[in-house]
Design brief:
The structure holds 2 protein chains of 2 kinds.
Chain A (H helix, E strand, L loop, with lengths): L2 H9 L13 E3 L6 H10 L4 H14 L24 E3 L14 H9 L13 E7 L2 E5 L2 H6 L3 E4 H7 L1 H7 L10 H9 L4 E5 L8 E7 L10 E6 L4 E9 L6 E4 L2 E6 L4 E8 L11 E12 L5 E8 L4 E4 L2 E4 L5 E8 L6 E10 L5 E10 L4 E10 L7 E10 L5 E10 L5 E10 L2 H9 L4 H17 L4 H10 L10
Parallel strand pairs in A: 3-7, 6-8, 7-9, 8-11, 9-12, 10-13, 11-13, 12-14, 13-15, 13-16, 14-17, 15-18, 16-18, 17-19, 18-20, 19-21, 20-22, 21-23
Antiparallel strand pairs in A: 1-2, 3-4, 5-6
Helix pairs in contact in A: 1-10, 2-3, 3-8, 6-7, 9-10
Chain B lengths: L1 E12 L2 E12 L3 E5 L6 H9 L5 E9 L2 E2 L5 H6 L2 E4 L6 E5 H15 L7 H15 L3 H5 L1 E2 L5 H15 L3 E5 L7 H14 L5 E5 L3 H6 L4 E6 L2 E6 L1 H10 L17
Parallel strand pairs in B: 3-10, 3-11, 6-9, 9-10
Antiparallel strand pairs in B: 1-2, 1-4, 4-5, 7-8, 11-12
Bound molecules: adenosine-5'-triphosphate (ATP) and magnesium ion (MG).
């Protein structure tokens, strides 16, 4: 029994979601220019304002250069070799009800453990299933509509609620924001949209399940969630992709808006194909996620568990504008083999007595590299602002690396900021202790990793805690308190 | 019946020899005490029996109920009924004690082909043991050994032992750092386990513990060898005279026992 080979057992589980769905697709030819953007926009029968917005973004993108500051390494991406749109061929207007969804697609989601049939679906979770560039089905829409909750694909929102889209789109992540967000603004194809009206507590978890299927296609989805005054919504996002030898680009944008006394809880279990052991293939996950706590006493929480992607580059952030508003970030990143992750968060305090909490847990295995990058910025007017950050890294084996870059800018003398960081190794003595109690090494490691991540797992909604547990190949039962 | 048979056991770590030919035989129903100066190899012996792979066995044999023990992985040894109460119990942050223990109990049950206990059944059993050992609810639901005082950690080892009901329990200085009440609780826990089917090996520096857990045999380890074996009076003699009078070591002919 050597501890390196034991580590391999735990960390080298096969990627179970790597199959390809054989379905006829309609794709845009590779390449990016104004014509492609017009073509996508026409395809989706979009109103003029949106096409204009896309074109402005594209023209701006042409002036930008790809960022090089993240601590990740990859060969240059040829943006002209990517196809910016791929959709399973279907009846002209897309399926109206689940009965009309292509059985091949239903089966795909079934295999992924996401039954779209409402009778079999997870009770209490409404799902919007995004397959390559389009949303293929949304469950429980009827029940949500009764409460006034709008939950649909982004394309549908553009058609049915253009005023809401126009009012909020790009207000949290402007089209000029950064290279990948700007690219997304130009070419995004679909995603999810959610609006929770005043005073409504959304009765079920809303969830989007992203699936990249087509080869040589980028996925550029956009999610917009607006929680009106006094409302509450919990939103889950899951992702997988087939195993392919070439890298695929995923550049999504998520915008959250919380008005007075509203609360949004956004959870992600990200399991994009990470590439093989030698780093061949896998998803480049370059994502911009940001929430604006616009109203007083509003609250936005990001919780994420990431095991997938060849490269992850993302910093879910909160802009705390409203007085007493709260931003939270709970993250577990588990890179393995040659995966690279540069992730973290930004908490921007503008309002008085705003509060933020950052809990980041990195578990690195194989030859992976894991970087935490966090910014806490306290502006002049943020009287009484408080932040607590804790970044813990656990190393499995000695070929992986973990780095922590906390940045702090405090412009208000009343601010209180605390930062804690630890790095530990899974101890041989811990494993032997478990072994001596009859617990095999693999289970012992799962238990130890789970214990390490507990503060984050307990923030996940129940249904997702189970998913996260499966992802880490571990039993969470009971160890989450 | 002979449970554990150790013959000429030699053990090294990083080319440094620590155990230099240990002979020891433990039968069902017996209680053995192992004493000896710091660094003489007591914990090493205990850990080798439990299967710690940092130690390399260079010669000798260990059998357990006639089977080659050194062939088995540590978790198999545990499931076969070997329990080690650690001299330095290990902390596992974020994992609740009860969860950890249920995993341990169920691993052994699975090994024996029995059904695993669900959380409710397990809780019932655990509650009884907690009461008899004076463990409070709060302590058993905390993370394994995290933030426990030295004494609490030792008590927790005995709690684990009580739940796992091992055939062979090895207690490595479980009495060190205990106040007098805790010492009695620990001794009660050990005595409750005593029986014709089980054997207990207590490693200790203090004769005091042996007033509560009365041993059938006492062995003295020095410099990686058993230099003296006797009955409980040997412990009293040691307390009186220290280890000096045994001379330094290499007199294996003294390491006899019936
Ligand atoms: N992993 C190791 N690497 C190097 N030396 C070790 C290791 N483990 C034990 N030793 C050495 O082996 C010898 C015996 O150690 P051991 O812990 O078995 O003694 P002990 O009899 O239990 O002592 P104490 O009464 O202080 O607990 C000591 O000299 C110790 O330094
Ligand atoms: Mg010792």
């Amino acid at each position: 029994m050597s501890s390196t080979s034991d580590l391999d057992v735990l960390t080298s589980q096969d990627y179970k979601y790597g199959f390809v769905t054989d379905i006829e697709a309609e794709s845009a030819p590779p390449g990016l220019n104004e014509d492609i953007i017009r073509w996508i926009s026409a395809k989706k029968e979009e109103p003029g304002f949106l096409l204009e917005w896309r074109l402005k973004a594209f023209r701006h993108w042409m002036t930008m250069v790809e960022p090089t500051w993240p601590n990740v390494h990859y060969p240059p991406i040829d943006y002209q070799a990517i196809s910016y749109y791929s959709a399973p061929k279907s009846k002209k207007d897309g399926p109206k009800s689940l009965d009309e969804v292509d059985p091949e697609l239903l089966e795909t989601y079934e295999k992924l453990g996401i039954p779209l049939n409402e009778r079999e679906a997870l009770a209490g979770v409404a799902v919007d299933a995004v397959f390559d560039s389009v949303s293929v089905a949304t469950t429980f829409k009827g029940r949500l509509e009764e409460m006034g909750v709008i939950f649909c694909s982004f394309s549908e929102a553009v058609k049915e609620h253009p005023e809401l889209v126009e009012k909020y789109l790009g207000t949290v992540v402007p089209f000029t924001d950064n290279f990948f967000a700007t690219l997304n603004s130009a070419v995004f194809s679909d995603g999810s949209f959610c609006y929770v009206p005043k005073g409504v507590r959304c009765p079920m978890e809303l969830s989007t399940y992203f699936r990249i299927n087509a080869a040589n296609t980028g996925q550029f989805e956009r999610t917009l969630i607006v929680a009106d005054e006094g409302s509450y919504v919990s939103y889950l996002e899951g992702c997988t992709a087939p195993m392919r030898d070439e890298n695929q680009l995923h550049a999504a944008v998520v915008e959250l808006v919380a008005l007075d006394n509203a609360q949004i809880k956004y959870s992600t279990v990200q399991n994009w194909y990470p590439g093989d052991k030698d780093g061949k293939g896998g998803i480049y996950n370059f994502v911009t996620k940001r929430g604006a706590c616009r109203g007083v006493n509003s609250k936005i929480s990001w919780t994420q568990v990431e095991t997938g992607s060849a490269i992850t580059w993302k910093y879910p952030s909160c802009i705390l504008i409203g007085d007493n508003s709260i931003g939270e970030f709970y993250a577990v990143a588990v890179p393995n083999n040659r995966q690279q992750a540069d992730t973290g968060t930004k908490m921007i305090h503008l309002g008085k007595n705003t509060k933020s909490t950052i809990i980041s847990k990195g578990v690195s295995a194989g030859r992976s590299s894991n970087t935490y990058r966090g910014l806490v910025k306290i502006q002049k007017g943020a009287q009484g602002a408080r932040n607590f950050s804790q970044c813990d890294s656990m190393l499995m084996g000695d070929k992986c690396g973990a780095h922590t870059f906390p940045y702090l800018e405090a412009r208000n003398p009343t601010a209180q900021v605390e930062h804690e960081a630890t790095t530990s190794k899974i101890g041989e003595d811990q494993i032997f202790y478990c072994n001596q109690r009859g617990i095999p090494t693999e289970d012992a490691m799962s238990m130890i990793v789970n214990g390490f991540c507990k503060e984050v797992f307990r923030e996940l909604p129940m249904e997702f805690a189970v998913e996260a547990q499966k992802l880490l190949g571990v039993s969470l039962e009971g160890s989450v308190g | 019946m002979t449970m554990l048979e150790i013959k000429n056991l030699q053990v090294s770590v990083e080319d440094k020899q620590i155990l230099k030919g240990i002979n020891l035989s433990v039968s069902s129903g017996e209680v053995h005490a192992v004493m000896g100066p710091n660094g003489s190899g007591k914990s090493t012996l205990a850990q080798v029996i439990a299967g710690r792979d940092t130690f390399e066995v260079t010669a000798g044999s260990v059998t357990y109920f006639g089977k080659d023990l050194l062939e088995l992985a540590p978790e198999e040894r545990a499931c076969e009924g070997i329990f080690l109460a650690f001299q330095y119990p290990v902390e596992i942050p974020g994992v609740s004690n009860l969860y950890f223990l249920r995993a341990a109990v169920n691993a052994a049950r699975k090994h024996r082909g029995e059904d695993e206990l669900d959380a409710i059944d397990f809780m019932e059993i655990a509650k009884k043991k907690m009461a008899s050992l004076g463990m409070d609810n709060q302590m058993v639901s905390r993370a394994v050994n995290v933030g426990f005082s030295g004494g609490e950690k030792k008590r927790n080892e005995i709690f684990q032992m009580a739940l796992l009901e091992p055939k062979l329990a090895i207690l490595d200085e479980t009495d060190s750092g205990l106040d007098i009440d805790a010492l009695k609780t620990v001794a009660d826990g050990v005595n409750a386990l005593r029986g014709p089917e089980r054997a207990i090996v207590v490693v200790t520096h203090y004769q005091r513990l042996l007033n509560y857990i009365v041993p059938d045999f006492v062995h003295v380890l020095a410099d990686g060898k058993v230099v003296r074996s006797g009955d409980k009076s040997l412990a009293l003699e040691l307390e009186d005279k220290g280890y000096g009078w045994l001379g330094n070591g290499a007199r294996p002919e003294l390491a006899v026992r019936a």
